[in-house]
Design a protein that fits this description.
161 residues, mainly alpha, 5 helices, elongated
């Protein structure tokens, strides 16, 4: 008995007996691929300022602590957002909604970071926009770290007897 019962044939131990079949949903694999790409995109946006902290200090005319806060938004925002994200997974299609919402938040985070580059009048306000972008991106971090266990629990079940 136990967790691996579904791996064994029902009844006898004859190799000719059929194993229970599992239903495969291709859409779940697409969601898995999108989750991986979203995690990659979130990491790219996230880790921008740490390797270039000295250059970022000069560019934004600020100190080390403010640049460090850009990375720390992840830990600060993670705790409250992971509760909301986990709760969202309890809804029907919660996983798909979370992945789509995460992609949208990642897009908004990237756009907020680019606005001062595109619109010259926003350049004096670049640092607050970057902080807002990092906060949005931190929510996406909660989504991409919570999605794999949720997808495993909801979409890739062992066959039922």
């Amino acid at each position: 008995g136990g967790e691996t019962d579904f791996l064994l044939p029902r009844g006898g131990s004859s190799p000719s007996e059929e194993l229970p079949s599992a239903r495969v949903f291709r859409r779940r694999y697409w969601i898995l691929i999108v989750m991986c790409l979203l995690s990659f995109e979130q990491s790219l946006i996230w880790l921008t300022y740490s390797p270039i902290a000295q250059n970022a200090e000069k560019y934004y005319h600020t100190d080390k602590g403010t640049i460090a806060l850009l990375l720390n938004w992840g830990a600060i925002v993670y705790l409250p957002s992971v509760v909301v994200v986990s709760w969202k997974f309890t809804f029907r299609r919660g996983l798909a909604l979370a992945v789509k919402g995460g992609a949208l938040l990642c897009l908004l985070a990237g756009l907020l970071r680019m606005l001062p580059v595109w619109i010259e009048s926003l350049r004096p306000h670049a640092l607050p926009l970057v902080h807002a972008a990092q906060i949005l991106n931190a929510v996406v971090g909660a989504i991409v770290t919570t999605c794999p266990p949720s997808s495993r629990a909801s979409g890739f079940h062992a066959p039922s007897a």
